[in-house]
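I have a small job for you when you get a moment. Would you make up a two-line entry for one protein for me to read? No commentary is needed, just the two lines. Write everything out right here, beneath this request.
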Amino acid sequence: MRSSGWASTRASNSCSKVQPWSCSARADWPSPDSARASRSHAGPRCIDSRWDRGSSRPVMSSPPSCVTSPLDTARPEMHSADAEPNFGSETLPAATPIITVIKPITGWPTLGLRELWRHRELVWVFATRDVRVRYKQRVVGMGWAILQPLLTMAIFSVLFGRMMKVPSNGVPYPLFALCGLVAWTYFVHGTTKSTIILANNRDLLTKVRFPRLALPFGTLVGGLVDFVIGFGLLLIALAWFGVSPGWHLLALPAAVGLLIMTTITSSLWLSATNVRHRDVENALPFFTQVLLFLSPIAYPATLIPDAWRWLYAANPMSTVISVFRFALLGDDAALHPAWFVSVAVAILGCWTGLLYFRRQEDRFADAV
């Protein structure tokens, strides 16, 4: 065992060799326990580059004249092991906990539009996911949003325009058909994707609490990408054929609003029903094919007799396509009082669809 004098001499020599500043070592070396305790406090240190014989740690001392490390000066003063650091005279306010109360829905619920607006970022996430998945690993990619209406327009132009000589009210038939196909494509895409969106997201419905309306609405928002692309293609076709809408273009917002409202109606009713009865998604392709011929896409609505026009207007898509042609092509022949029937059906269907969806919302996790 070394004497205290020998240790003091060696510590003094080591400090003078390693550090350029003066460092006076103390003869009373601290015990290992007190040395470990002193490391938790700020203070100067003097470290010898040589290792003590028979020890695995370098020789350390804490002389008062050694230069203090910048890290030691920046460290807050601690008075005890459990004390909080003192960063200044100001005291940070305590965080207020956020409490969310989940209440069961009794009776007929509200529409849930306010809650959906608070979660609008989630709707946007679902919309972007739908767009990415739709065009992922596709060679053409988003070009399908252009090819699909163009190919369908070409088929309709040959079959109905040239072979069957279907009238188009003085408008070039390709433009006449494309105007109806742009609105029809958005309706079919939104209805088809929304019908299966709840059944395909079983893990989200059973493990995460969020407004279920965000799923179908996210699909409808994502479908607007294809609609905007198709509408741009329609504007190019208008310029190509030299057709100017004129003041009729003021009716375009009403046509778009009625289209979105009709798509919301079919999406909510079919998606909520498909959770419990999966036959809906199997019957949906047949339903859309029948509705294609019940809507004035390949033919003008003026071919329907006036006695049947009011019943024909019970299909809101018939009025949607007619208003689109009135706004973009200036087709005054499409005007008819039966339009108000379609508007009433769309508003009533959207309102009852929201109520029905919210009523079935609590049963989705068990039925899916």
